[in-house]
């Protein structure tokens, strides 16, 4: 619904003596970051200083996360550069690891 329609609904409710509809608030990004997300993150290996492979729970699903990290205010933070593979995607990649190794060796 557009903002214009929402505003009208609120105004109509007020003119009829009803309470305006309650607005739901989303948690801030910092509140989401401070949840138990960090405890669900298991670092499997460090590929380099700033790149890590981890297994974590994201939106109720287990994913394999390959990601770059950066430091902000002395705290390590996940960057935008990376990929989260679902278990189905991870299994496909794992099943093709030998083929990938062969192609890499040929180059």
Describe the 3D structure.
Residues 1-40 are annotated as: Disordered. Residues 45-96 form the Transcriptional coactivator p15 (PC4) C-terminal domain. This is RNA polymerase II transcriptional coactivator KIWI-like. With 107 residues, this protein is an alpha+beta fold. It has helices at residues 3-15, 29-33, 87-95, 97-106; strands at residues 42-46, 51-58, 61-72, 75-86. 2% of the residues are buried. Residues 23-37 have low confidence and may be disordered.
Give the termini distance in whole angstroms: 54 Å
Give the class from helix and strand content and strand pairing: alpha+beta
Low-confidence stretches: 23-37
Radius of gyration: 23 Å
> Strand-and-helix sequence, N→C?
HHEEEEHH
Number of strands: 4
Shape annotation? flat
What share of residues is helical? 25-40%
Averaged pLDDT = 76
Strand content: 25-35%
Biggest sheet overview: 4 strands, antiparallel
Biggest β-sheet: strands ordered side by side in the sheet: 1-2-3-4
Determine the number of helices (DSSP H or I, runs of at least 4 residues). 4
């Amino acid at each position: 619904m557009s903002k214009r329609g929402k505003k009208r609904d609120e105004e109509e409710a007020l003119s009829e003596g009803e309470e305006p509809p309650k607005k739901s608030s989303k948690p801030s990004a910092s509140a989401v970051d401070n949840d138990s997300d960090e405890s669900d993150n298991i670092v499997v290996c460090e590929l380099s200083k700033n790149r890590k492979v981890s297994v974590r729970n994201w939106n109720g699903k287990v994913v394999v996360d390959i990601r770059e990290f950066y430091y902000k205010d002395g705290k390590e933070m996940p960057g935008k550069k990376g990929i989260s593979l679902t278990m189905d995607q991870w299994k496909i990649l794992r099943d093709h690891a030998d083929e990938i190794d062969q192609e890499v060796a040929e180059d």
